[in-house]
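note to self — DONT lose this again. spent like an hour looking for the file last time. sequence + predicted structure for the chain T wanted, 445 res
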Amino acid sequence: MRTRTLQAWLLLGLTGLGHHAASATEPCVHIHGGTVFDGERLIEDADVLIRGRVIVEVGAVKGSCATVIDADGGVITPGLVEGWTKLGLVEIGAVKKSVDTDHSAPLVGASYAKEVRASVDAALAFNARSTLLPIARTGGITSAVAAPSGGTISGTGLFADLVTGPRSDALVAERALMVADVRGREASRATAFHTLKVALEEARLRAKRAAADGPRGPWLTSAVDANALADVTSGRMPLVVRVDRAADIEALLSVAKGLRLVIVGAAEGWLVREQLAAADVAVIVNPLTNAPSSFDSLHARADNAALLASAGVRVILTTGSSHSARKLRQVAGNAVRAGMSYPAALRAITATPAEVFGGKERRGVLKAGAVANVAVWSADPLEMSTTLQHVLIGGKSLPLVSRQTELLKRYRRLPAGAFVPPPAATMHEGGDKEAPAAPEGPDPG
């Protein structure tokens, strides 16, 4: 696969593009000759034309651009979207000072406030220069959700493009979702549900009071947390709740009725798939959660995602990881192996998470007017032998370089004499290896 710059050609204006047409003076990229997944279907032998930061045409493209990327018969997809990570909020999991996800300090002295932290804004801690962002890009990921944790209501998460540099260049939606957890980790499950229910109802009552002198306090929820939850109760922001057990999902559907509810985990989601579909609840699942690991996931099974999708549930696939987010296409391949349709699996790592969390601009699709986040693959992206050839974010091609690739380059070949192998181990009867004896010398004391 190759990129060639046509110095002699001028940018030509496109016709028939309607309101999606971009200025002919903007940089133009023509991705040529591949199978295109546009977010819904596969289109054989198609091109993608980009002007500036948006896609202007997909299909049999006519015209010329200064930059042409030859897909060489590979596959062109939207940039992948990881729907559940802590990217930009964590660097080294074992180093507490580099982890900024669990905001466990209460905003006020009451113990209730420790469980309700709706006003905590994770985007304020987002680091767009994290070394994990380029690593994720090498897996074809161009956008991701980054979510806080801790308490029953953890605060707001963000949606970002994985560009390295100033926060403003990366952040797409700073307050894209409200995160909650009703699995009863710090208190009982009943207490967690009670906390969520009270916080949501107080947010509704406070909004009524502000609008028409509604009921007065006292309130369990602080004013700033209630104001943050008002975006949830009004439907402006999705409420994303961590829950696995089918019984808990049923309870949550009752507590969060009428809200833009998204469930993450849902190990037993397949048991209540009809209810989830009827309530139009999106579900974020990891296809590798395929066996019981706790009392919350006794009915976990490998085809959970396939069963949910076949029932009409909007499914988002995730690795659930920041350090291994680049493996997103691998977990999607496992979902296909377990019965999920190929287009549904691709949608679950592109169009669906972008639609749920990506804000006003269109991402996760290759259609006129969408932001030009694009991945070009040597072949089927869900096959592990396939390689990523190009990745573009906002129409700009980014190098497939990360800290890992640089370390590989540095240490792949060591200078002569830089590595001295240890003495060969001796063998006892029975075949056990004996460690080489320590050299004689003074006792180190």
